[in-house]
Design brief:
The protein is of the alpha/beta class. It has twelve helices and 14 strands. Its EC number is 1.1.1.25.
Length: 303
């Protein structure tokens, strides 16, 4: 039995599932090792409501079938992960402003009229995670490493939360330039090969966010094939920097280890995962779950 399964069973221990139980689910491929069931079931338990959350593997191209099943089975909420975020955005009945800007949905709400509404809670989850650590983003200059889906959700949220300036650093300058169109008045694209521009951007930034997969464990291996990896040179990190790594497996990446060695505040990516899930539950139920309980359950599952 895996740690995730144990935590899932712990969250449901003593719970009686009946015809009145509300169900929510995550769809994606793969989802076998998803922490979402652990996080959400503990969140529902903290609220004392009769909800259960499960993971459903849905192959690419079957997003419409998943939405049809959601309606047929009476699911109350849906989390969406890769590879379905873009497809679901075009299939739901309406979308929130963030989901519209990103052309991506990670949350589906069943409205009172039965229509399906798509939301994106990833970026706001990151902001909430920073706020929990006493870090406000308004008026701050922020350096973002990466220009993929995670980076885009962060850029959108940061500009909505009134940050002052955003630097987007990526191997492909074209991708970085596409990402900054989400915040054209405050965002600037930089190629990671432009060492002078990267150095200047880091020197002028208050917060550094790694939105790449560098340092992530996939299965039993580090994605980059190098155990000691960091997406940015350690000498660019100052003691007064705040560094957040969206990677949470391992919970302490090489970037965070280097950050703390330099005397700066390092924040792991598990908080973002938990806070975006809490925002999903707020959308579905109108209630705010205990984020601390959810984080501890996720941490236990990772251990």
């Amino acid at each position: 039995m895996t740690s995730t399964q144990e935590s899932f069973e712990l969250a449901l221990s003593g719970k009686r599932i009946s015809s009145n139980t509300s169900f929510a689910a995550v769809i994606g491929d793969p989802v076998k090792h998803s922490l979402s069931p652990v996080i959400h079931n503990v969140g529902f338990h903290s609220l004392g409501i009769d909800w259960v959350y499960v993971a459903c593997e849905v192959k690419e191209g079957e997003a419409q079938s998943a939405l049809d099943a959601m309606k047929a089975l009476g699911l109350r909420g849906l989390s969406v992960t890769m590879p379905h975020k873009i497809a679901i955005a075009s299939l739901v009945d309406s979308v929130s402003s963030a989901a519209q800007a990103l052309h991506s949905v990670n949350t589906v709400e069943v409205a009172t009229d039965g229509s399906l509404v798509g939301h994106s809670t990833d970026g706001d989850g990151l902001v909430a995670s920073l706020v929990e650590q006493g870090v406000a983003v308004d008026g701050k200059t922020i350096l973002i490493l990466g220009a993929g889906g995670a980076a885009r959700s962060v850029i959108d949220a940061l500009q909505r939360h009134a940050c002052r300036q955003i630097f987007v650093v990526n191997r492909s300058l074209d991708h970085a330039q596409t990402a900054v169109t989400l915040a054209p008045s405050i965002a600037q694209a930089i190629s990671i090969a432009d060492i002078a521009a990267l150095t200047e951007a880091a020197a002028n930034s208050d917060i550094i966010i790694n939105a790449t997969s560098v340092g992530m464990i996939k299965g039993s291996e580090i994605v980059s094939k190098n155990v000691l990896v960091s997406p940015i040179a350690v000498d660019l990190i100052r003691p007064d920097h705040i560094v957040m790594d969206l990677v949470y497996h391992p919970i302490e990446t090489e970037l965070l280890r280097q950050t703390r060695h330099r005397g700066a505040l390092g924040i792991d990516g598990l908080g973002m995962l938990v806070h975006q899930a809490a925002l999903q539950q707020q959308i579905w139920t109108g209630l705010v779950p205990d984020v601390s309980d959810m984080y501890q359950a996720a941490l236990q599952a990772l251990a």
